[in-house]
Amino acid sequence: MEKFRESMLALITETSTYLPPDVRVAINAAKQNEDAGTRSALSLATIAENIVMAEENVSPICQDTGMPTFEIKTPVGANQIEMKKAILEAVVEATKTGKLRPNSVDSLTGENSGNNLGAGTPVIHFEQWEKDYAEVKLILKGGGCENKNIQYSLPAELEGLGKAGRDLDGIRKCILHAVYQAQGQGCSAGFIGVGIGGDRTSGYALAKHQLFRRVDDVNPNEDLAKLEAYIMENANKLGIGTMGFGGNTTLLGCKIGVENRLPASFFVSVAYNCWAFRRQGVQVDVNTGEIIKYVYKDEVVKMDQAAPVAATEDEEPREIVLQAPISEEQIRSLKVGDVVIINGEMHTGRDALHKYLMDHDCPVDLNGGVIYHCGPVMLKDREGEWHVKAAGPTTSIREEPYQGDIIKKFGIRAVIGKGGMGAKTLKALGEHGAVYLNAIGGAAQYYARCMEKVEGVDFMEFGIPEAMWHLRVKGFAAIVTMDSHGNSLHADVEKTSKERLADFAEPVFK
Ligand SMILES: O=C(O)C[C@H](O)C(=O)O
Ligand code: SF4
């Protein structure tokens, strides 16, 4: 089992750090399909660079290494108990070496187990098959895109689309709606797995299982093949674009599966996966524990790293360098679309910290400061110094109930995250003089590179992702998507995509 444990560690490392070829092809195609100089084209260039950096650094593509979910097939007679033990050991080891972020949190106490083990984590499903070797598939699906999963119970009334009945056309509407409701918050452009039927539990399992299909396969069910092709063509007309910035590519893959249902139920379950679609698999010799071959690694696909073609001069975004702490005057001069380069100190803060700061003081002075919605992967060296191994943004909307109050209470001038925030925050940005900056979700290596030094940390009791890390950064680039003058790119994209969604209300599959 020692060799099997090593093979599992190799699988986890590969999954977290190397994006499979079929996913690369889809992202390269999106990059080529995006208009030069647009925010989406620039974001895709950053994403491509990040994918290459992760491969070269053998470090996580995205800091959120998700809920490790294993689907395993074993020959009859293989010892599944021993295999499970070896997998758990490999998960612990991968966490120690920074290939996985400690992601297993006690739901009642909030305590992070620190090693990715805990009640229900990781997820491991075994099944037997007739072959004489084992197959272990792994998906690392992050929390932000998991939050955008959605389940419909038909018949239903869907905003923009009207009535969705218990038929193929009703299913079509659900899937389009699922893409619309994700906006940029699951780090679009995304991949979706759809499960038709089952019950609430098995429907979601079927949806997630679809994500193990290759992006370029063709559904053996003719009706579903047609539906998949239809969705790929039309979901991209919604114009949500990379990170919700608007653009030509919103969806990179759509895979639909079907199972029988109960007479009374008709579920359509959708599993949304971000562009950082980390799934891999290995065939393993059960006698030696050695990897025979990788399942999703049959060709070498290089990322398209051609520099994005510059926009014409009048479209060129302004680039403004800001040194933290930032003055109100500087912030008021910014507008949606500006690119901001930040130097100086920033502080990470996400769910636990925002909740805490509502009725406590902050251990550091945040006046003029920058808050980064980020839960990094951190490793401590032998001298006891912390290093940032992966540090992309997290979905900001979760902080919507707190953010406006916290901006005002502590004098914060810039909030960095992804996916945008709501009306309450937008109002506070205007009242206080602050901006929301959208960083590229999943670009964890790209941002880790600008983190020059870890100045300190507070609230380690919240666990590594939720702690407040004080970071000195140089050249941290982000886009102003909500300014202090009441403008929000997110509100605009949501509005136009909702209007476009209504174009799909007429029946297509009769
Ligand atoms: O937890 C994180 O770091 C990010 C999360 O996956 C998200 O998309 O919000
Ligand atoms: S931050 Fe974005 S890329 Fe990373 S796991 Fe979350 S949704 Fe995926």
UniProtKB/TrEMBL annotation:
Annotated Fe-S hydro-lyase tartrate dehydratase beta-type catalytic domain ranges read: 306-492
Required cofactor(s): [4Fe-4S] cluster
Which InterPro entries does this one have? Answer: Fe-S_hydro-lyase_TtdA-typ_cat (IPR004646), Fe-S_hydro-lyase_TtdB-typ_cat (IPR004647), Fe-S_hydroAse_TtdB_cat_sf (IPR036660), Fe_dep_fumarate_hydratase (IPR011167)
Reaction equation(s) it catalyzes: (S)-malate = fumarate + H2O
Q: Does the keyword Lyase apply?
A: yes
Which biological process terms from the Gene Ontology are attached to this UniProt entry? generation of precursor metabolites and energy
| EC numbers on record | 4.2.1.2
Q: What SUPFAM superfamilies does the entry give? A: FumA C-terminal domain-like
Q: Which UniProt keywords apply?
A: 4Fe-4S, Iron, Iron-sulfur, Lyase, Metal-binding
Q: What is its biological role?
A: Catalyzes the reversible hydration of fumarate to (S)-malate.
Q: According to its UniProt record, which protein family does this protein belong to?
A: Belongs to the class-I fumarase family.
Full protein name: Fumarate hydratase class I
